[in-house]
């Protein structure tokens, strides 16, 4: 027990000591707590959630300016001074917070001090939860009034800053060192969208990496403020925008660059405006510099303030040379008064357009058109003038030249011997010269108020108006008649041309008075008509006469022929032969005259036959050979190998010329040779021109007689003519015929040496298979000679009685050729020139056969045959064989021949072999018939 008591006493002692120690510690704590400037408080909550004990340190009274002990541990008392606006939050946080079992609770709120001022306090509580459900909450409440005030000030400052940054009108952004936009103001956001927290190159430039010229980058790299005057970027929508940027480093207190502040001034609008302005300025500059006009600006003193290159070029200066010079330095002295007057007006405010001659640097003139305007300042004061100058020097020169040429032209027009006038399309005269006035008898004024219809006979008015209106045959010349003012008429030759006059079509006319010419023409025409009539009469007379002469002559020749066949003694035979020879000459003369008169009367027409030149030449040669051989002359015919032989033309007339020339050659040559040379003269697609030359070694022709020989009836020496015979018609006929054949004729000769007569003629080519001479200069003479040697089998009737052939053919050469061919065949031949003569001859002489040309004048072969065959015919032998000679191509003619009663036909030109065969056949038939009939 004692122990217990001891124990108890000890325990009490220990407890008392512990209590004392605890109290001492509490006092220390209280002391410590009272030293704390914050209110320390606590409260307990029992298991039922009721506040069961509380402690509030006395600092509370001090803090609230209350007498010590006012609050004590009374929370309600404390909370009664809490600002009513803040109380709910305080209650929620500190008192009710227990329920939420959150350990830390903080509340900031206002509390009213005893003197009525407000304190800002911050209470912080920490709850401790006992396992049995009780809770003890400890906390402190500190005076944060000063901090709050500082915060308020800061907030206000922030607000101001915010207002400034948001309304600054420029973009502001803070960029971190990794190029993130930390913050951006509205301006930035408006342009670039929500950029905060995003990388700046992506948002401002839509680039993946930092721009090389990025201002912020430079700031980070160099640590200095950077200004970028023009930075392009992309706005939210991808549109290019322009900004001016100032980037400034933001440093921490150690001076390290943390971030960069970017001031972005949008200059897109301004830049566009500036660009536009620059563009338009450049455009104007270009216009001014490249203008084809000279441009100048003069200052108030009329000195050059600006000149463009063109003006300088126009005047031969460099632009700089002209600047500041007075404008009168380019004005000619004589133009000065006018210039000064203009400048005065200019200073008074008058612009205008005028022509001005300017002096070039080299002293020459430059004509310009000046368009000037006055320049004024805003107050309306004269500040100079602006002028554009067009160089019209060339135009001036052209004007002068035009004036000069117009004057020249006008003089020429006035001096012209013909009437010259211009009429418009309605026919009104718009220009006339003096001759026109005189020719038509009006004054210039009168004529200019008149119309072409006033100077034309009524019958020509409609045609003239039509011509003017349609400009049909606008460029032509024709004869017309003009009516003078007094009503008389003047014949004119009118030359009209369509011209353009001031942009309108008009007609220029030149009228030549042809009164005299008309008179001469009338006289000439009458004379010509009279001459033609006379020629016609002469030709007709000749034709008639020769016909009249020839008929009895044919009788004479025919009869002498019969006589010669009879038994005559030598003397009788000689007389009859002379008579026959004379008759032949007379007949050939008459034929020539007839031929010539026919050509003169233009009645001779050429035939168009396909023929072989070789056989034509051979016929010719055959004929000429007779005379040549008689005289012992050599006769050669040379054809150049290039000459085509198959031709189309008139072989009869060709032969006629050749025989005329060849006959003369034989006639006028006593020894030596005669050469016929045929060569090519020219050729085109359809035609060939061939040259024929007949060369002899005869008497030749004196030079002074050569020219006249181709005229009719001209002979070199008429005394010799008697020796040689002839009429002087052969060459005249040959000339006419050569010309008819599209050729020419000429001669070269040397007296005593010989002559060359040549002519050319145009022939058509035969379409196909035409050949040329096979051998060079084929000697046709050889063939002739051969034929002579072998001899032609004579076609003869029985015994001595030779067959007698009548040839009806109008062409004398054809006659001669036929005669020669038939003679060679041993046949007697008489020729007549037309159908009527043939009928007459057949009535007198018992011919055995007739060779009848179809085409003959007076009466053709068809008609003659019909008459011969007619029942009442007086022909000695009505059924005599009649062989027609006709153009091979005339198919219709052949049928006509048979119908007319002819027995057969032979194609012209007649070929000897063919003729021989034909005659052999028909003479045999005729002989048989005769024998039968006998
Ligand atoms: P014709 O011979 O009938 O007299 P032409 O007209 O044929 O008529 O010839 C006229 C004249 O030209 C001839 O009379 C002759 O004086 C001269 N003549 C023509 N050809 C020759 C010639 N080859 N040689 C010399 N004189 C010629």
Describe the structure.
- By secondary structure, the protein is an alpha+beta fold.
- 43% of the residues lie in helices and 26% in strands.
- The protein contains 28 helices and 32 strands.
- The strands form 6 sheets. Strands 21, 22, 23, 24, 25, 26 and 27 form a 7-stranded mixed beta sheet that branches. The chain has a 5-stranded antiparallel beta sheet with strand order 2-1-5-4-3, with helices on both faces. The protein has a 5-stranded antiparallel beta sheet with strand order 7-6-10-9-8, sandwiched between helices.
- A hairpin with a 5-residue loop joins β8 and β9.
- α19 packs across α24, α20 runs antiparallel to α22 and α25 runs parallel beside α26.
- It is elongated and about 240 Å long.
- About 3% of the residues have low confidence.
- Bound molecules: adenosine-5'-diphosphate.
- The site of adenosine-5'-diphosphate (ADP) has 20 residues, from α20 and α22.
Task: Give a topology summary.
Blueprint: H1 2-35, E1 39-45, E2 51-56, H2 59-64, H3 75-79, H4 87-95, E3 104-112, E4 118-129, E5 135-143, H5 145-167, E6 171-176, E7 181-184, H6 186-192, H7 200-205, H8 215-222, E8 226-234, E9 240-251, E10 257-266, H9 268-290, E11 294-298, E12 304-307, H10 309-315, H11 319-322, H12 336-347, E13 352-359, E14 365-376, E15 382-391, H13 393-415, E16 419-424, E17 429-432, H14 434-440, H15 444-448, H16 458-470, E18 476-483, E19 489-501, E20 504-513, H17 515-565, H18 570-600, E21 609-612, H19 613-631, E22 634-639, E23 646-649, H20 651-667, E24 673-683, E25 687-695, H21 718-724, H22 730-740, E26 745-750, E27 754-765, H23 780-790, E28 804-808, H24 812-824, E29 828-832, H25 835-844, E30 849-853, H26 861-869, E31 882-887, H27 891-900, E32 904-908, H28 912-933
Parallel strand pairs: 22-24, 28-29, 28-30, 30-31, 31-32
Antiparallel strand pairs: 1-2, 1-5, 3-4, 4-5, 6-7, 6-10, 8-9, 9-10, 11-12, 11-15, 13-14, 14-15, 16-17, 16-20, 18-19, 19-20, 21-23, 23-27, 24-25, 25-27, 26-27
Helix pairs in contact: 17-18, 17-25, 18-22, 19-20, 19-24, 20-22, 25-26
Bound molecules: adenosine-5'-diphosphate.
Adenosine-5'-diphosphate (ADP) binds at residues 660, 664-665, 668, 696, 698-699, 701, 709, 715-716, 721, 726-732, 755.
């Amino acid at each position: 027990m004692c122990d217990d008591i001891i124990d108890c006493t000890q325990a009490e002692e220990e407890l008392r000591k512990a209590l004392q120690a605890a109290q001492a510690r509490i006092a220390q704590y209280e002391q410590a707590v009272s030293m704390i400037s914050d209110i320390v408080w606590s409260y307990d909550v029992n298991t039922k959630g009721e506040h069961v004990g509380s402690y509030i340190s006395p600092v509370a009274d001090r803090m609230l300016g209350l007498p010590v002990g006012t609050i004590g541990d009374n929370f309600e008392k404390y909370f009664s001074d809490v600002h009513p606006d803040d109380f709910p939050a305080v209650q929620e946080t500190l008192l009710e917070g227990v329920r939420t079992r959150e350990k830390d609770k903080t509340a900031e709120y206002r509390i009213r001090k005893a003197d009525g001022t407000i304190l800002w306090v911050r209470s912080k509580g920490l709850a401790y939860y006992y396992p049995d459900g009780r809770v003890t909450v400890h906390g402190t409440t500190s005076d944060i009034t000063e901090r709050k005030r500082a915060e308020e000030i800061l907030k206000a400052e922030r607000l101001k800053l915010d207002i400034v940054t948001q309304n600054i009108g420029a973009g502001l952004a803070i960029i971190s060192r990794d190029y993130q936009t930390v913050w951006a103001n509205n301006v930035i956001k408006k342009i670039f969208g929500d950029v905060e927290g995003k990388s700046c190159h992506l948002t401002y430039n839509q680039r993946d990496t930092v721009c090389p010229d990025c201002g912020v980058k430079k700031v980070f790299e160099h640590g200095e403020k950077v200004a970028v005057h023009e930075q392009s970027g992309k706005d939210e929508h991808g549109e290019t925008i322009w900004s001016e940027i100032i980037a400034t480093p933001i440093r921490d207190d150690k001076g390290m660059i943390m971030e960069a502040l970017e001031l972005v001034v949008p200059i897109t609008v301004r830049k566009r405006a500036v660009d536009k302005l620059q563009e338009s300025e450049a455009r104007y500059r270009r216009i001014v510099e490249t203008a084809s006009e000279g441009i100048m600006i003069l200052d108030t003193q009329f000195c050059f303030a600006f000149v463009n290159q063109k003006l300088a070029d126009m005047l031969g200066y460099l632009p700089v040379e002209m600047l500041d010079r007075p404008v009168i330095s380019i004005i000619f002295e004589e133009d000065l008064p006018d210039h000064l007057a203009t400048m005065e007006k200019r200073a008074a405010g008058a612009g205008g357009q005028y022509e001005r001659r300017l002096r070039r640097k080299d002293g020459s003139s430059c004509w310009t058109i000046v368009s000037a305007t006055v320049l004024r300042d805003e107050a309306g004061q004269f500040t100079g003038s602006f002028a554009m100058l067009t160089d019209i020097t060339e135009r001036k020169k052209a004007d002068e030249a035009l004036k000069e040429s117009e004057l020249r032209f006008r003089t020429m027009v006035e001096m012209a011997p013909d009437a010259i006038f211009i009429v418009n399309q309605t026919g009104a005269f718009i220009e006339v010269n003096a001759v026109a006035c005189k020719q038509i008898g009006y004054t210039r004024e009168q004529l200019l108020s008149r119309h072409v219809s006033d100077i034309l006979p009524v019958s020509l008015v409609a045609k003239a108006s039509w011509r003017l209106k349609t400009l049909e045959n606008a460029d032509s010349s024709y004869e017309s008649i003009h009516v003078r003012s007094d009503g008389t008429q003047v014949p004119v030759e009118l030359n009209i041309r369509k011209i353009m006059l001031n942009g309108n079509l008009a007609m220029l006319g030149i009228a030549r008075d042809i009164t005299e010419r008309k008179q001469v023409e009338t006289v000439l025409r009458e004379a010509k008509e009279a001459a033609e009539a006379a020629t016609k009469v002469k030709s007709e007379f000749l034709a008639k006469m020769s016909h009249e002469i020839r008929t009895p002559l044919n009788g004479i020749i025919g009869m002498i022929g019969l006589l010669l066949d009879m038994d005559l003694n030598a003397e009788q035979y000689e007389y009859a032969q002379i008579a026959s020879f004379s008759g032949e000459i007379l007949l050939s003369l008459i034929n020539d005259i007839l031929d010539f008169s026919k050509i003169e009367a233009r009645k001779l027409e050429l035939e168009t036959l396909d023929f072989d030149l070789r056989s034509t030449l051979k016929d010719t040669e055959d004929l000429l050979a007779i005379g040549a051989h008689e005289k012992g002359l050599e006769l050669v015919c040379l054809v150049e190998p290039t000459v085509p032989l198959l031709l189309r033309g008139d072989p009869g007339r060709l032969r006629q010329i050749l025989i005329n020339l060849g006959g003369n050659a034989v006639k006028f040559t006593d020894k030596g040779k005669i050469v016929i040379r045929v060569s090519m003269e020219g050729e085109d697609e359809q035609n060939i021109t061939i040259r024929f030359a007949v060369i002899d070694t005869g008497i030749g022709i004196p030079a002074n007689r050569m020219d006249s020989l181709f005229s009719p009836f001209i002979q070199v020496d008429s005394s010799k003519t008697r020796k040689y015979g002839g009429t002087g018609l052969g060459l005249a006929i040959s000339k006419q015929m050569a010309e008819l054949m599209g050729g020419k004729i000429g001669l070269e000769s040397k007296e005593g040496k010989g002559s060359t007569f040549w002519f050319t003629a145009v022939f058509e080519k035969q379409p196909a298979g035409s050949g040329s001479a096979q051998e060079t200069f084929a000697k046709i003479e050889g063939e002739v000679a051969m034929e002579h040697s072998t001899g032609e089998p004579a076609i003869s009737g029985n015994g001595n009685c030779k067959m007698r052939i009548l040839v009806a053919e109008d062409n004398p050469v054809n006659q001669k050729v036929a005669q020669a061919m038939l003679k060679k065949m041993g046949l007697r031949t008489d020729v007549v020139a037309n159908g009527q003569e043939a009928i007459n001859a057949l009535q007198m002489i018992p011919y055995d056969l007739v060779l009848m040309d179809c085409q003959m004048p007076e009466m053709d072969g068809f008609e003659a045959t019909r008459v011969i065959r007619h029942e009442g015919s007086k022909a000695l032998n009505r059924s005599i064989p009649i062989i027609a000679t006709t153009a091979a191509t005339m198919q219709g003619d052949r049928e006509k021949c048979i119908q007319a009663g002819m027995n057969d036909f032979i194609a012209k030109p007649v070929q000897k072999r063919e003729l021989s065969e034909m005659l052999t056949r028909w003479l045999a038939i005729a002989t048989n018939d005769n024998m039968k009939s006998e």
